Amino acid sequence: MTQMTPKLRIVEHAYADIGDSSTWLAELGTSIRQIVPSLVTCFAFEIARIDGRMCLGRPWTEDPLIERQLQLTFAEAPSELLDLFYGAPLVAKMSREVLEHAGVAFESTVLAETYGASGFVDAFGVSAIGPSGRGAVLGMGLADPAGPAAEERIDWVHIAAHIAAGSRLRDRLAGDDALEHA
Hints:
Elements: H1 6-15, H2 21-32, E1 39-50, E2 53-61, H3 64-76, H4 79-86, E3 90-94, H5 95-101, H6 110-117, E4 122-129, E5 134-142, H7 150-174
Antiparallel strand pairs: 1-2, 1-5, 3-4, 4-5
């Protein structure tokens, strides 16, 4: 019998029928606590590409400041910036890395200030977006700016694939149109 590791528990939650989307996101988010050592806070949210723009669906956060910042970001950020973070189907990266790869200084964005106000230095995001442009994102506010090691990030990409598949399955079985109103 296979022992249920914390990472397998997240995969199990990805496919679980555990109520509405908010409950599902909370289960995914709280599962992270058992895996990431320098975790300060975690959050999860649904996402969808609507009329060519990534849109925020239901969020779950431990910190109300993070939820407010997510709402502001999706309302005000240019599509190009949102696509840096959420344009690829399966991503497991630190915010600073995503921005610097695109030539944007992390310190020049509102993220540095927002993260500091919430007690962490950077966020590690795991985007799990299916072919339809819908999916979920797990975020982890970390005290360690390096984030997970390279081999751990590969595991997170695999986990993201399961979360994306679980999200598609939930949509198909429930007919959940919550993101259509985002």
